[in-house]
Write a structure and sequence with these properties.
Radius of gyration: 17 Å
Number of strands: 6
Number of helices: 6
Shape: globular
Largest sheet: 6 strands, mixed
Structural class: alpha+beta
Distance between the termini: 30 Å
Strand content: 15-25%
């Protein structure tokens, strides 16, 4: 059958009863609700990263059948185009099988001015996963980039799935 499609916000609401948009649209309010419910998530510097924590802790482990989770927060997707119907979110999906992410895809942001702003904004909450300012990339965007998208599939994760391995260390050499 076709893969299940799950909106990230709906998945979180289903597993935690938190509506990330209605009452908890700011990081502080969302964190306070997580604490009130005694949810097992760590504090995060922004709303999008806290939403990602909720997804990883409460939604991803429940996925058995192949599923596309879509519509991710802008805060954690600096290279993606904004969702035209909700500017807090972007056009991005991740593919999951047996609770494991095997692919990530998104519509590429091709506006150099917005991309520069996002890189600068991300530096405020920088961590090991943050994109650094990439002047060469900004310059390439200024030359003109048509609408594009991409899909990254982890061959290591796919190998884990096909060989029924629980640890990436068992397949990384292949």
């Amino acid at each position: 059958p076709p893969w299940r499609r799950l909106n990230l916000a709906e998945g979180i609401k289903q597993h935690t009863e938190i509506d990330i948009f209605e009452t908890y649209g700011e990081a502080e309010a969302l964190w306070a609700e997580c604490q009130r419910l005694k949810l097992n998530v760590s504090p995060q510097p922004n709303w999008g990263k806290l939403v990602g924590e909720l997804l990883a802790e409460y939604v991803e482990p429940t996925i058995v059948n192949p599923t596309f989770i879509h519509t991710f927060p802008l805060d954690v997707s600096p290279l993606s185009k904004q969702n035209p119907s909700d500017p807090r979110m972007v056009e991005r999906f991740e593919a999951f099988v047996v609770g494991m992410e095997i692919a990530n895809a998104y519509s590429e942001l091709n506006d150099p001015i917005i991309q520069r702003q996002r890189f600068l904004e991300q530096q405020k909450d920088a961590d090991e996963e943050s994109h650094q300012m990439d002047e060469d990339y900004i310059m390439a965007l200024m030359q003109g980039m048509p609408p594009t998208g991409g899909l990254g599939m982890g061959v290591d994760r796919l190998t884990m799935l096909l060989t029924n391995q629980q640890s990436i260390r068992e397949v990384i050499l292949f």
